[in-house]
């Protein structure tokens, strides 16, 4: 499936129907009073979140949405038909903005949550409403109010409990596939993951947590380098962050510098990311050798910066059960702190 997290669409609500000019014409009432009905209301544009969708891909094929117009009023005081609304479905986590002003019109974070974005035009009044003591046979009726058109920007921010962050080729996708049923593309070269992936971690007590793996981040990500700014927004809603470090990153930068760079880029993009609970998984321990950074020295340096670390091998499964238990523990601690007002 192609993953798209941004889209631009145009939506227009329906016009209100015209009111009717009509007079009663019955067998014994050849010159009856006005009986023109009102026009029907135009359809509104409604946007609704659904957990059945995971991407904005559908909007690459359809970019224009229009609700129907209200029906014209009829004689015998019959109102025109109200038009059905135009309902646009988007994934849960979609933010809708006015593309011209930037105003946030909706932030849909729950399944089936919906909002009326553009109201349909009201139907015009029929001539029965314009009869007076001096004008008992009015030959006027209101036109319906026109619908409105807006250009909308849709941005998807994934809703997940845990976010995986790290440099390209750190092993995030392998970890996601080992802890969940997700099957992201995995290969031994940087930038294998080019779109965010979601997976569900299941625990023994039937509890489940959603984990998001975003593409690898590089220096300058907060400014858009490597499309990092687009990827970072997908961890803004997470409750817990798991940093993945590659112990075999030689001859690249020092592994601790990688960790500090990631924290720096996250803070530049959104300061609140730095305040989220997090810990570190040092991956690829199956390949660890004397030529690599001293592991205890590295763990101490990470601990001095406020993070707990775990040694794992996503390939062999070493340390993953302990990591899974820690994920649940830290997530529950964060939730309790939130509801007690400590977070």
From TrEMBL:
<comment type="similarity">
    <text>Belongs to the TRAFAC class OBG-HflX-like GTPase superfamily. OBG GTPase family.</text>
</comment>
<feature type="binding site">
    <location>
        <begin position="213"/>
        <end position="216"/>
    </location>
    <ligand>
        <name>GTP</name>
    </ligand>
</feature>
<keyword id="KW-0378">Hydrolase</keyword>
<feature type="binding site">
    <location>
        <begin position="283"/>
        <end position="286"/>
    </location>
    <ligand>
        <name>GTP</name>
    </ligand>
</feature>
<feature type="binding site">
    <location>
        <position position="173"/>
    </location>
    <ligand>
        <name>Mg(2+)</name>
    </ligand>
</feature>
<feature type="binding site">
    <location>
        <begin position="191"/>
        <end position="195"/>
    </location>
    <ligand>
        <name>GTP</name>
    </ligand>
</feature>
<dbReference type="InterPro" id="IPR036726">
    <property type="entry name" value="GTP1_OBG_dom_sf"/>
</dbReference>
<keyword id="KW-0547">Nucleotide-binding</keyword>
<comment type="subunit">
    <text>Monomer.</text>
</comment>
<dbReference type="InterPro" id="IPR045086">
    <property type="entry name" value="OBG_GTPase"/>
</dbReference>
<feature type="binding site">
    <location>
        <begin position="313"/>
        <end position="315"/>
    </location>
    <ligand>
        <name>GTP</name>
    </ligand>
</feature>
<keyword id="KW-0479">Metal-binding</keyword>
<feature type="domain" description="Obg">
    <location>
        <begin position="1"/>
        <end position="159"/>
    </location>
</feature>
<feature type="binding site">
    <location>
        <begin position="166"/>
        <end position="173"/>
    </location>
    <ligand>
        <name>GTP</name>
    </ligand>
</feature>
<dbReference type="InterPro" id="IPR014100">
    <property type="entry name" value="GTP-bd_Obg/CgtA"/>
</dbReference>
<dbReference type="Pfam" id="PF01926">
    <property type="entry name" value="MMR_HSR1"/>
</dbReference>
<keyword id="KW-0342">GTP-binding</keyword>
<protein>
    <recommendedName>
        <fullName>GTPase Obg</fullName>
        <ecNumber>3.6.5.-</ecNumber>
    </recommendedName>
</protein>
<dbReference type="InterPro" id="IPR031167">
    <property type="entry name" value="G_OBG"/>
</dbReference>
<dbReference type="InterPro" id="IPR006169">
    <property type="entry name" value="GTP1_OBG_dom"/>
</dbReference>
<feature type="domain" description="OBG-type G">
    <location>
        <begin position="160"/>
        <end position="332"/>
    </location>
</feature>
<keyword id="KW-0460">Magnesium</keyword>
<dbReference type="InterPro" id="IPR006073">
    <property type="entry name" value="GTP-bd"/>
</dbReference>
<dbReference type="GO" id="GO:0005737">
    <property type="term" value="C:cytoplasm"/>
</dbReference>
<feature type="binding site">
    <location>
        <position position="193"/>
    </location>
    <ligand>
        <name>Mg(2+)</name>
    </ligand>
</feature>
<comment type="function">
    <text>An essential GTPase which binds GTP, GDP and possibly (p)ppGpp with moderate affinity, with high nucleotide exchange rates and a fairly low GTP hydrolysis rate. Plays a role in control of the cell cycle, stress response, ribosome biogenesis and in those bacteria that undergo differentiation, in morphogenesis control.</text>
</comment>
<dbReference type="GO" id="GO:0005525">
    <property type="term" value="F:GTP binding"/>
</dbReference>
<dbReference type="InterPro" id="IPR027417">
    <property type="entry name" value="P-loop_NTPase"/>
</dbReference>
<dbReference type="Pfam" id="PF01018">
    <property type="entry name" value="GTP1_OBG"/>
</dbReference>
<dbReference type="InterPro" id="IPR006074">
    <property type="entry name" value="GTP1-OBG_CS"/>
</dbReference>
<keyword id="KW-0963">Cytoplasm</keyword>
<dbReference type="GO" id="GO:0003924">
    <property type="term" value="F:GTPase activity"/>
</dbReference>
<dbReference type="GO" id="GO:0042254">
    <property type="term" value="P:ribosome biogenesis"/>
</dbReference>
<dbReference type="GO" id="GO:0000287">
    <property type="term" value="F:magnesium ion binding"/>
</dbReference>
């Amino acid at each position: 499936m192609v993953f798209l997290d941004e889209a631009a669409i145009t939506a227009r609500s329906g016009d209100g129907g015209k009111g009717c000019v009509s007079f009663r014409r019955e067998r014994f009432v050849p010159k009856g009073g006005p009986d023109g009905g009102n026009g029907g209301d135009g359809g509104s544009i409604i946007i609704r979140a659904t957990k059945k969708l995971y991407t904005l891909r559908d909007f690459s094929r359809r970019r224009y949405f229009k609700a129907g117009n209200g029906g014209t009023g009829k004689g015998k005081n019959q109102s025109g038909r109200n038009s059905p609304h135009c309902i646009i479905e988007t994934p849960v986590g979609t933010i809708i903005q006015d593309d011209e002003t930037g105003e946030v019109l909706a932030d849909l974070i729950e399944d089936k949550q919906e909002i009326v974005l553009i109201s349909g035009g009201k139907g015009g009044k029929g001539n029965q409403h314009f009869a007076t003591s001096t004008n008992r046979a009015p030959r006027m009726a209101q036109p319906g109010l026109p619908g409105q058109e807006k250009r909308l920007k849709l941005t998807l921010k994934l809703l997940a409990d845990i976010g995986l962050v790290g440099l390209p080729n750190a092993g995030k996708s392998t970890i996601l596939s080992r802890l969940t049923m997700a099957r992201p593309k995995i290969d031994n070269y940087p930038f294998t993951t080019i779109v965010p992936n979601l997976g569900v971690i299941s625990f023994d007590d039937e509890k489940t947590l959603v984990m998001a793996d975003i593409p690898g981040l590089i220096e300058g990500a907060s400014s858009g380098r490597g499309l990092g700014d687009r990827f970072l927004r997908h961890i803004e809603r997470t409750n817990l962050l798991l940093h993945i470090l590659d112990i075999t990153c030689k001859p690249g930068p020092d592994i601790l510098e990688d960790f500090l760079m990631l924290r720096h880029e996250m803070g530049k993009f959104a300061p609140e990311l730095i305040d989220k609970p997090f810990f570190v998984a040092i991956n690829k321990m199956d390949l660890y050798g004397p030529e690599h950074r001293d592991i205890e020295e590295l763990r101490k340096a990470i601990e001095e910066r406020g993070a707990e670390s775990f040694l794992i091998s996503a390939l062999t499964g070493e340390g993953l059960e302990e990591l899974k238990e820690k994920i649940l523990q830290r997530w529950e601690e964060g939730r309790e702190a939130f509801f007690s007002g400590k977070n």
